[in-house]
Structure formats: C-alpha cells, structure tokens
Amino acid sequence: MEATALFWLMVAPALTGCVLALMADAFGSRESHASSAIAAALLGAAGLAGVVGGATTAPTPVYETFSVGGAQSTVSGLILALTGAAVASLLGSKVAWRGRVTVLAALAATAGVLAASSTDLVLTFLALETVSVCAYALVGASRSRASSESALKYFVQGAVATAVLVMGIGVLSAVTRGDAAYSSLSKTVLIAGVTIPIVAGFALVFVGLAFKVGLAPFHTWAPDAYQCAPAPAAGVLAGPAKLAAGSALAIFFFSAVPASEAVFESGSAMGDLLPILGVIAALSMVWGSLGALGQGSYTRMLGYAAIAQAGYALVAVVSLNPGAAIMQLSLYALGSVAAFVGAFAVTSVRPEWDGSIAGLKGVARAHPLLGASIALAMVSLVGIPPLAGFWGKFQVFGAAVSASSALGARGLDVASWCYAGLVVVGIASSVVSVAYYGAVVRALYSGEGESSDAADSGGLTVPIVVTCVLAGALLVIGWVPFLLGLEAPLRLFAL
Known about the structure:
The chain has a two-stranded antiparallel ribbon. The two termini are about 20 Å apart. It has 19 helices and two strands. The chain is mostly helical. Strand 1 and strand 2 form a beta hairpin. It is globular.
C-alpha cells in the first residue's frame, strides 16, 4: 500500500467521523444514535486500514513530518479501532452525554494517530495536547459534581505538565537551532555528545510525556479521572489515549537518541537518564499495584492498575527495546477498553450498580457472556496465558533479561543487577495484580445473580456485544503466537 494513501485512509475517515458526529449531535434529536453509529463505523474502517497497512507497508516518510507503515501505523490503527469500539458501546444507550463523548473520542483518536506517526517533536506536542484537551472534557462529560471537580484537577495538573514539556522542547530546539525533527536531534546528540542542555531537555520532555502516560509520581490525576469519567470515556483515556502518549514517548527516545552500546555508559545522554527512568518504572509498578490493592471501586482500581501497566512499558524503554514497550501498551489498551466497556455493559443490565467491585456479585450468573468477557479482560490484564496480555509482559521482561545478560557479559555488573531487579519487581507486581484483578472475577461468579430490577434479567445489549468482541480478540490474539510463533506479531510492533 502506498504510504501517503495509507496516511489519509487513517486520518480522513476519523476526522470525517468527528465532523459528522458533531453535526448529528448538534442538529439531530436527542434520541438519535446517528452520531455514535457514524463515528464508530468510520473509526473502525480507519482502524482496519491502519492495522493492515502497518503489516503490509514498510515505514515511509510522508510530508517530511510523519512516518507511515510498520509499527506506527499498527498503533494508529489500534487507536482508531479501540476508540470505535468504545463509541459503538454507546449505541442504544439513552445517556445524555452520549453525543459529546462520541465527538470528543473521535477527535482524540484523530490526534492520537498524528502523535503516534509524528517524527517531529513540536508536532507530537501539538497532537498530544489535542488529545489532552479532549481528555479533560471527557472526564467532565457527565457534568456531575464529582466529574467536574476531577476534570478541573486534571486540567490544572495537565497545564503544569504542558509547561514543563514546552520548556523541554524549547531547550532541545535551541540545541538543534530550531529544528525539532527527531533526525536533527539525533545528529546533534551524535556531534555534540553529552551536554547539560541536552540532558536537561530530555529530562523535561520525559516528565511532560510521563504525566500523559500516567507514570508515578506524575500519576495523581489517573484514579480520579478513571473513576469519575463515563465508563466508555474512561476506556478511551486508558486505552487509545495512553497508547498514543506511550508510543510517542518510546518513539521520541528511540528516534532522537543514537542507538549504540555506549548508551549504557555513564557520561552518555541516555546513560545519565536510564537510571532515573529505571527508578520511575519500578516506582510505577509498585505504587500502581499497591494502590489498586486496596480499592473498592472497580474503575478506580483500574486507574491505579494503569499506573503499574505504564511502568511495565517503561521497563522495555529502559531496556532499549521500543517494540516490546509498544506491544505491551497495545495489548494493555485492548484489555483496558474491554474492562471499561464491560463496566458500561453492567450498568446497562443492572442500573442500580454502585460501581463497586462487590456490587458485581452475581453478574456472571445472570449474564454468563458478560461475566466471562470481563473475566477474560481481567486475566489478560494480569498477564496469564493464553490471553493476549501475557505476550506484552513476556516481551517486556524478556527485554530486561536480555539487557541484564548483555551488560553482565560486558563486565557492567551493577547495571546488570539493576535490570535483574526490575524484572523481579515487575514479576512481584504482576503477582500482586492477581489479587485485585482476581477480586473482580471472584465477585462476578459469587452470589446468585438475583436483582430486583427487571433490566437485570434482560437479554444482550450493545455494550455486552462489544465487550464480548473485545474479549474474543484478547483470546484469539493470545493464541496466535502459540500457533504461528512470535515472529509475525513482533514485526507488527518493531520500530
């Protein structure tokens, strides 16, 4: 497939879906589902084009600012497809915020594609800021007091993170004499070596991007935002938006920093930053897992768990394996959207649900397909085979083990043990995650599934169908490496 055509096959339908959804919501009746149907269909079609194009098209520069084909198009396709799934779950729903969530989600997905495809730091920043503005509005979409307060807190913290990111871009642009392309930054690092402005610029940009990904200690917005946002909107935040920001972070580091064995040495640009990134990765895994462990709210638990999931991806970044980081984020995004759409499905059949994990008691007995789908999403998020989430963690920990072995062979024993320590922390965090994800499964299958509300005994709803499709994708993707080997999936995510 020709690269320019692939770019527009992703961007044009997504942007068209956003505009048409806005018009349908503005001029259509409140009962109409046209906006959600149009956006879901166009986002799904664009997502399919991106995934197919990523598998069949070699990475090619487009308009001198985008890279189309390969892993970046695969990620773009997943961003669009998962957003389309979240929007599709709104079909048939009568909630007042359906239209605005649809429009904001479609716009965020379009901007996410630009962020994941960008080869220029300024354009990446502008695209991610568009995603962030949509995210602030998505959190407050229900217009309840809690969601409005959470959106305001998120906005204020996001403004500070944006200022830090702009400062970092300014420093790096000064070093490269105004050229923010990753290739120019890479050449500058090669020629100038390690300088205080380069290290400071990288550190500032990382802090800004770390906030958008939700890494500790820049994570404080995540639990409130995921808890207070409408469930489909929270799914967009946890899945497509996090995937766009995380991919942008990985691509920035591995496009701008020259690849060589010397990056592990003290005194190199990455050598000075890698220990800090390793500490943040470990802190994110520990803090996210321990924070999720004590939560009674289903969506707030997923908010803390998302911090740990971002930490796993950062382990791969620290191990200089961008493909593993993007694979982990992609498979997590699929599982998280399934989990949040599942929550919305529960409210469609059990309107009295208070959002707690304990309140899920009996759901699987009353609605076996829904219960099984949410359970599969939880198992995938833990990382248990044969679900898709297992392969993300397998690649992440494998990358850290490989880095540890390589450093040990070069006599860098301290660094080697540090990578081994990251693997230990990651595995321990995954073991802890069995408790909080397992609590959901236990609640689903406990109790008799009785309810005084007639809706609890209803049949299939659109959110249930979408949840089942996403859970089925987790199961099918998880079996592919067992049947066909890991080589083909790895090619999809290799930068």
